[in-house]
Amino acid sequence: MIESLLVANRGEIARRIIRTARRLGIRAIAVHSEADADLPFVTEADEAVCVGPANPAQSYRNVEAILAAAKSTGAQAIHPGYGFLSENADFARTVEASGLIWVGPGADAITAMGDKINARNLMAAAGVPVAPGTTDPAADLDAAVVAAAEIGYPVMVKAAAGGGGMGMGVATDEAALRTEYDKVRSFAERMFGEGSVLIERYFPRVRHVEVQILGLADGRVVALGERECSVQRRNQKLVEESPSPAVSPELRERILAAAVRAGEAVGYRNAGTVECLLDPATQEFFFLEMNTRLQVEHPVTELVYGVDLVEEQLRVAAGLAPTFDPDALAPRGHAIELRINAEDPKRFLPGPGVIRTWVESTGEGVRVDSGYVEGNTVTPFYDSLMAKLIVNGATRAEAIERARAAVAAFELAGPKNNLPFFAELLENEEFLSGDYDTAIVTRMR
């Protein structure tokens, strides 16, 4: 097993990785910005190194500073968490070229899945269903207009290099397409340094379902069930649950098999997620993208399958067998994750500030993965996620009851927060029925 691990991330995910590392007797090394010096992940690590000022480009995305920290501390491996450099193929190659172990998929797999058009084409060749769309970038607006006419409106206009719900727009006709194309292209050039645009069929009523895969050290790819991720605002997830209430046993068999084929098509190793769109009316599903990293919502899979995905990542990276029998994977119960963000519960606009009160929920079936404690400051420099409130129960109904109690018991004052939204959602008839889609938050507002 790896003996020393540098965590190239911050907040709740850094704290989460450090917790598993220390349980396994691995020396945990944190890197942090000047703005994060007082956060729990820094104080809980065995060693911590400041890698720069608050600006992520000068700290958490500063490859030279992170590698220098790994060298100075004698780190054997680097875990990138999610976000920042986690899906940067050049960083993965540089880590390995420096003689360090990269806790993630190979750089070639990251590259293959990093471009949405290339990923679509690879998946189609592997027999994974893809939504009608372009097989090459829409080179200009005229090409986008022709493609949209062939696909049929409405269409989704997507940045080929985008991710995390960013760089997307919906066009219901040619006039809207002309506006969205320019908007998405300029956003993609500004944010990703790559302006390629993909045109794809848009489904007005759709569910977002994803499959957790794990590429093992022996070359096999296994699927650890699906997660429902349809409660979103601005195409970004707020709530995830497993198993999905929309997925029948027959559909589950098909979607998990497709996810395994997706991983096998790129020789996938380590943890990853195959994201799909599900048409609830027809039970058709389509490949959306593959996230070549650990997902924010991985805890719901951990609770349903009884595994520690960070430990499994470390074992794969070290060339070791998993802790579980890949041929005997069996889910148990139901789990729900609520992302507690520093944002107002109505318009979901960021609301950073000093945390005056922070009392986490406890009780049977309740888990909290947090990045902050009372007295910390949520700054405007990073993502607004403060904690993940995860509950599990024998049934979905029991999990929802525990989620209601946990939301009511969580005491948080200072920054704006979305706990009131979750209290509302957990009483919403559409959500309670399990028959909801990605527009549920819009309908609630």
From TrEMBL:
<keyword id="KW-0436">Ligase</keyword>
<keyword id="KW-0067">ATP-binding</keyword>
<feature type="domain" description="Biotin carboxylation">
    <location>
        <begin position="1"/>
        <end position="445"/>
    </location>
</feature>
<dbReference type="Pfam" id="PF02785">
    <property type="entry name" value="Biotin_carb_C"/>
</dbReference>
<feature type="domain" description="ATP-grasp">
    <location>
        <begin position="120"/>
        <end position="318"/>
    </location>
</feature>
<protein>
    <recommendedName>
        <fullName>biotin carboxylase</fullName>
        <ecNumber>6.3.4.14</ecNumber>
    </recommendedName>
</protein>
<dbReference type="InterPro" id="IPR005479">
    <property type="entry name" value="CPAse_ATP-bd"/>
</dbReference>
<dbReference type="InterPro" id="IPR005481">
    <property type="entry name" value="BC-like_N"/>
</dbReference>
<dbReference type="InterPro" id="IPR011054">
    <property type="entry name" value="Rudment_hybrid_motif"/>
</dbReference>
<keyword id="KW-0092">Biotin</keyword>
<dbReference type="Pfam" id="PF00289">
    <property type="entry name" value="Biotin_carb_N"/>
</dbReference>
<dbReference type="InterPro" id="IPR016185">
    <property type="entry name" value="PreATP-grasp_dom_sf"/>
</dbReference>
<dbReference type="Pfam" id="PF02786">
    <property type="entry name" value="CPSase_L_D2"/>
</dbReference>
<keyword id="KW-0547">Nucleotide-binding</keyword>
<dbReference type="InterPro" id="IPR005482">
    <property type="entry name" value="Biotin_COase_C"/>
</dbReference>
<dbReference type="InterPro" id="IPR011764">
    <property type="entry name" value="Biotin_carboxylation_dom"/>
</dbReference>
<dbReference type="InterPro" id="IPR050856">
    <property type="entry name" value="Biotin_carboxylase_complex"/>
</dbReference>
<dbReference type="InterPro" id="IPR011761">
    <property type="entry name" value="ATP-grasp"/>
</dbReference>
